[in-house]
Amino acid sequence: MVGVVTAAVPAARPRKRPDPKCPLRPGEPCTLCQASVTGPQDCGLVYLIMDDPESRDELAAWKRR
Ligand code: SF4
Fold this sequence. Notes:
Elements: H1 44-51, H2 53-64
Helix pairs in contact: 1-2
Region (Disordered): 1-23
Pfam families: DUF6767 (PF20555)
InterPro entries: DUF6767
């Protein structure tokens, strides 16, 4: 084919999936420490803490320290 101009495309950098963070351990990634979980989204411990207003408030207060 004549007249086709191709631009130099920089090589794509490999994409890294973001590490899900543990909501109960600020700044730390989820280490799948609970049985049969795939991340914070189905972690029973996170569910229990976040579902209980008193525990959720305590966690928030602890994070502010
Ligand atoms: S499994 Fe749950 S408690 Fe364990 S690190 Fe992941 S989110 Fe946190």
